[in-house]
Amino acid sequence: MPKFGFWAAGNDGSSNYRALLPARAISWLRPKEHNPYGRPHAVGASRNLADIHQADVIIGSRVAHPGAMPGWRQLKEDGKRLVLDLDDDYFHIDKENRTAYQWWVNGIQDGKPIQEGGFLPFLRESIELADVVTVCSEGLAENIYKETLHPNIKVVENALGADVLGLDRDYDPELLTVGWAGTENTAQWLPMIKDVINKAAKDGYGRRVFIQFIGAPASFVTAHGFRLRRGHAKAYEFLHRPEDYLRELSRIDVLLAPYRSTLFTEAKFPTKALEAGFLGIPLIASAIRPYREWIDHGVNGFLVRNNAQHEWGRYLGALIQDAALRRSMGMEARERASDNTLQDYLGVAWEEACLS
Q1: Cβ–Cβ < 8 Å for 83, 60
Q2: Residue 209, beta-bridge partner list
Q3: How far is it, in rounded angstroms, from Cα 118 to Cα 51?
Q4: Which ranges in the chain are annotated with CATH 3.40.50.2000?
Q5: Helix, strand, or coil here: 354?
Q6: CATH of 162-337 among 3.30.450.20, 3.20.20.70, 3.40.50.360, 3.40.50.2000
Q7: Residue range 211-266, pLDDT digits in tens
Q8: Can you say whether the dihedral through the CA atoms of 128, 130, 132, 135 is positive or negative?
Q9: Model pLDDT, residue 113
Q10: Each residue's pLDDT tens digit, 14-70
Q11: What is the dotted CATH code of the domain comprising 4-159+341-355?
């Protein structure tokens, strides 16, 4: 019965989805009717390799830092089963995502050179050493195979706990909240929804609304042309504690997720659809591949083709004005998200991927 060790890359949302939650899900597996490999598993997750190096299977998150490479090589020499996990296509990072691009492609952190030639050569080596490469989407699996020709790439999607599905939701609150949630990476596409947000902030869709941004501080929002009514908007940095993030996200009644179509974004997992679905929030998203594959347009969300402004406005207006539509779309979104729970999906999916 193998022991699993997740070597997390940090304390961010990615590490939560790709290390902490999978470790918890594997630890919950029950006897053979649900677990053909036999129970129990000892499971650990840590940023410190010393905490988990005794495990038989080591799942490393995007191992590429020069300080981490000796440990990864030694694990291979020690006969460990290595699983290299990727949650994004780091080979095709958009230049507009300056921090990540400087890091991966140029090896620069905070303006200082860390690794000449960047970290992608190390990432390629980590992939070559791995027995299995796990990724979060079919699009990412296709891109990584084209880049590396690795023969054993497995897709394990993100998931959340089933308890989140049961949270109560008021679909007709006195003050409706329209919002966006993201990171420095996805904030670059916020200007795509500037006009419709500004219209909503001025009651342009026939109802007063509150505007909320999670992951984009007020200085960023105002610098990009958003004009928000004092006392009717909130904007702040990303919340790193998952419970804090989900609590604030749950306050949003209509969520918008704008993306530009690139090799990087087309390979993403539709995390905002997952999160909105678990919380029963109707979502309007750009019609890039991950959201096309998740959303049944008009049923469990809306898809905006080519980021057309009139479509952003039409769908946002419809959801602001119609509580019944918000309810039906939110409930359908929850039904779709229920396929991706820790309890019924994640543990078995990770176990099978790591051991196959």
Answers
A1: yes
A2: 176
A3: 28
A4: 162-337
A5: helix
A6: 3.40.50.2000
A7: 999 999 999 999 999 998 888 999 988 787 899 999 999 999 999 999 999 999 99
A8: negative
A9: 92
A10: 999 999 999 999 999 865 545 555 556 789 999 999 999 999 999 999 999 999 999
A11: 3.40.50
Strand 81-86 with 108-109, pairing:
unpaired
User: How far is 176 from 23, CA to CA, in rounded Å?
Assistant: 37
Q: What is the DSSP string of 273-300?
A: HHHHHHHT--EEEE--HHHHHH--BTTT
Token pair listed for 16: 């939560």
In this prediction, residues 170-199 reach a mean pLDDT of 95
Summarize pLDDT for 283-312 with one digit per residue, the tens: 999 999 999 999 999 999 999 999 999 999
Look at the block and give the residue holding tokens 């990724």.
135
Q: What is the DSSP string of 239-270?
A: P-SHHHHHHHHTT-SEEEE-----HHHHTS--
> Do residues 215 and 188 lie in contact, with contact meaning Cβ atoms separated by under 8 Å?
no
**Cα gap 239→225, rounded to integer Å:** 23
Instruction: State the distance between the two ends of the chain, measured CA to CA, in whole angstroms.
Output: 14
Task: Give bridge partners of residue 132 from the DSSP assignment.
Answer: 83
